[in-house]
Amino acid sequence: MKHRAFHRYLGAALLGCAATLGLAAAGHAQSYPARPIELVVPFAAGGGTDAMARAMSDASRSHLSQPLVVLNKPGAAGAIGLTEVANAKADGYKLALVTADMVIIPHLNLTKTTYQNFTPIIQLNADPAAITVNANSPYNTVEEFLAAARAKPESIQVGNAGTGSIWHLATAALEDKTGAKFGHIPFNGGNPAVLALLGGHIDAVFVSPAEVIQYVKAGKLKTLAVMADQRVTGFENVPTLKERNVDLSIGTWRGIAAPKGTPQPVLDQLGKAFRAAAAENSLKRFMAEQNLGYVVADQQTFTALMERDNATFKNLIDKFGLRQ
User: Fold this and answer.
1) Per residue in 177-218, pLDDT tens?
2) Is the keyword 4Fe-4S in the record (predicted)?
3) CA angle, 156 as apex, 150 and 157 as ends, to 5°?
4) What is the pLDDT of residues 57-99, one digit of tens each?
5) What are the distances in angstroms from CA 132 to CA 154, 157, 209, 216?
């Protein structure tokens, strides 16, 4: 009898604790946010990622009761800012503007912080790699381009945004898929690579459509294919690789994530607010003006994308010996 009474007491105590924790979580969600929310951009001010974060901050004003404050924490290819957020208190007051770099740099041995230290909230953008050459290039189709790279390995010099960057890995992925072999020329970012292509110093670049569209429209460059599942706005006449029987889709993305362990009611509240902000015409207009791919995906879909790309980039980095 005493044992049964003790077990009843213990069960009641545990239920009481669970109820207390549940009420605490609910109370936190109801009072959240009680102060400004920090959105850490792990790159310097002035770039496309920073600009998108600030556009999102503006769009969220009417959907959050507190401001979303953008803070730039650049360094170590994004590792410094990401690590700061990963180590922050998981209460919804410090978030990260994440990019595809977060599933690349751990495999380059640049950080021990991985996508698993975060819970994704919303994806806002996706941009495929675009294979672009000079307007006077002898290659007018992606088939001609790949045939030349197979016939004379490493003769075609392809610029990228740096060794181990998303655009370098996109080039490596195409090599892996087709048997072509390029000469890889690293630059300190995509824009310097594009300028080198304009100057005739390299033969091609694999960067986002946004980084070449103004030159393509001006007739200075031509894009042979995009590494996307569907054709890209502004490049409606440019085929996807899949249309050319190369089953490859690869590119970069951006979104917002919270430290792992953030209460689900807070994540749900942020997700609802950010989806409403993403639907604002001001944000859509910004994305269109910047030629950024507008993609809105929820927590589950964004998580699946991170998992897929993490495996893809790990395989490419190991296969091509890119670990530093």
Assistant:
1) 999 999 999 999 899 999 999 999 999 999 999 999 999 999
2) no
3) 145
4) 999 999 999 999 999 999 999 999 999 999 999 999 999 999 9
5) 17, 12, 9, 9
Question: pTM here?
Answer: 0.87
Cα 119 to Cα 197: distance, rounded to the nearest angstrom: 39
50: CATH: 3.40.190.150
Order of strands across the sheet with 118-128?
A: 68-72, 37-41, 94-99, 251-259, 118-128, 294-297
Q: Which tokens is 132 given?
A: 């672009």
Query: pLDDT per residue over 231-254, tens digit each?
Result: 999 999 999 999 999 999 999 999
Tell me which residue range forms the domain holding 81: 37-126+252-320
Amino acid in position 61? R
Read off the tokens for 304. Answer: 């699946």
Nearest-angstrom CA–CA distance, 249 and 229: 6
Which tokens go with 18?
């669970």
Q: Is residue 91 located within the same domain as residue 170?
A: no
Q: What is the 3-state secondary structure (H, E, C) of 7-23?
A: HHHHHHHHHHHHHHHHH
Total of domains in the chain: 2
